[in-house]
């Protein structure tokens, strides 16, 4: 069983932030296990594409097993897959609740539980990184999104809880709380309006998120941190 290179598992890796993270970890020399509901493998033998809906029970374990079978270990998980729907609270449907909690909460639980179990078995520690949102702490009436706060707020709390639970075993747990990032999630025509949500007056780029995650990857004394990459949004407006 190989112990080199280190291996990062990234969910929601087919486009946008996830695709940027895949490239970033490869530049660090990591092998990457890339997951989304539909994802195709490329030509890089050090990238394993594993399709699957992390909201479904058992999928997290299957993805981790595939990672270990191919690369022999797992060192980092980036919980990037997420679903965001902005809507007045009373307009959310049962189907939207199930979809959002399924991806954001069950997906985190599925992947992280299986990965941490593997990290404990193999020894040597590990790292969980979860993508969150500044809206958890800085609600905005222009962007009503209580289900984002419900789910991502819980993930922020779980990030800190896991950091403390596994600190003595070398497994770190951090989160990156985002403002608006330029990704396929948004229409290009919306960016001028979205820029006004941030004190800096512009939206973030995928590279800003990748830089933040890789900083955490290379910061062994940092755990339990909610790192804000939001153009000052969490500070006020």
Question: How would you explain this protein's 3D organization?
Answer:
The protein has a seven-stranded parallel β-sheet with strand order 3-2-1-4-5-6-7, sandwiched between helices. Helix 1 (16-27) crosses helix 6 (206-217), helix 2 (59-71) packs parallel to helix 3 (94-122) and helix 3 packs parallel to helix 4 (146-165). It has one domain: Rossmann fold. It is of the alpha/beta class and 237 residues long. It is built from six helices and seven strands, in the order E-H-E-E-H-E-H-E-H-E-H-H-E. Strand 4 (76-79), helix 3 and strand 5 form a beta-alpha-beta unit. This is Dehydrogenase. InterPro entries: NAD(P)-bd_dom_sf, SDR_fam. One of its GO terms (biological process) is fatty acid elongation. Keywords: Oxidoreductase.
Q: Which percent range fits the helix content? A: 25-40%
Structural class: alpha/beta
Tell me the CATH topology: Rossmann fold
Structural shape? globular
Widest beta sheet: strand line-up = 3-2-1-4-5-6-7
For the residues shown, what is the average pLDDT? 94
Question: Largest beta sheet, briefly?
Answer: 7 strands, parallel
The CATH H-level homologous superfamily? NAD(P)-binding Rossmann-like Domain
Strand composition percent:
15-25%
Gyration radius, to the nearest Å? 17 Å
Low-confidence stretches: none
H/I helix tally:
6
The sequence of SSEs as H and E is: EHEEHEHEHEHHE
CATH architecture: 3-Layer(aba) Sandwich
The number of strands is 7
Q: Provide the domain count.
A: 1
Distance between the termini: 52 Å
Query: Class in CATH?
Result: Alpha Beta
Multimeric organization: single chain
